[in-house]
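Entry: Inorganic pyrophosphatase
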Amino acid sequence: MKEQFNPWHDVTPGTNLPDVVKGIIEIPKGTRAKYELDKESGMLILDRVIYSSMYYPANYGFIPKTYCDDKDPLDILILTQIDVVPLCIVPAKIIGVMRMLDGGEADDKLIAVSAGDPSVNHLNDISELPPHTVLELRAFFEDYKKLENKAVVVEDFLGREIALEILQDAFKLYEETFEG
């Protein structure tokens, strides 16, 4: 019997790390559907429909072969001019990180731009984003769970260097947890 393919464990995170990383999209930009990777099957599951009349401001997913203290792969928001279909692999350039607390626990979101989208791939650091884009990301993540009576605190937006340190830590924790 053939083992089931799981994008978290079976997709390489990239061959040109850390310059370009592969992000696997769970949630396309512009939707209210909160899809999550079912860790056991590798399929997507509809976790819920966002209670608020808000829409994801960026394509949202994870980086394969990473692991974080929240028991999930490392989250990534990939900025691009299009809505990317779920389970699509998007080569992306990390430009920063949004540090946040979800229910009191650390839940960092790397911020990246699609390496194949000329409308954004010239950006190299979060400081180059239009200020309104950062405000949109902050507002979405601070507000999207309010009607569920859950607290999310966006602490700070930090640059590429810190984001790459977080990525390396997530690779190391994955290796220790699943391969060590």
